[in-house]
């Protein structure tokens, strides 16, 4: 589950926020398998999609993380959750996306694609209200 500014997100929803206001993020990983899973690293990467096949990940002048954009997850037991909190601060207006990836920690071998990425979250940063 992914929550942006307290709202559950899916790939069809655009979350609107204001430039200059920290936007709380929450990612909850639930283990529905019969076995413990982990260790993982959870990485959140913002980008802009130029709608021509180009994704711009060089956004250090437009977006900053409050805290870290990578979280380490030791083990998640069967039917249990692991929840991670962070925040984004948008410095400019625009449409941005958040790519959320899980990958094996301390290993160069990545998990199968079905485990690797969650659908991108679409966030629209607007001018602050006067």
Automatic annotation (TrEMBL):
It comes from the Eukaryota. One of its GO terms (cellular component) is trans-Golgi network. InterPro entries: Ig_TRAPPC9_Trs120_4th (IPR058568), Trs120_TRAPPC9 (IPR013935). Pfam families: Ig_TRAPPC9-Trs120_4th. Residues 16-125 form the Trs120/TRAPPC9 fourth Ig-like domain. PANTHER family: TRAFFICKING PROTEIN PARTICLE COMPLEX SUBUNIT 9. This is TPPC9 protein. It comes from Loxia curvirostra. The lineage of its organism: Eukaryota, Metazoa, Chordata, Craniata, Vertebrata.
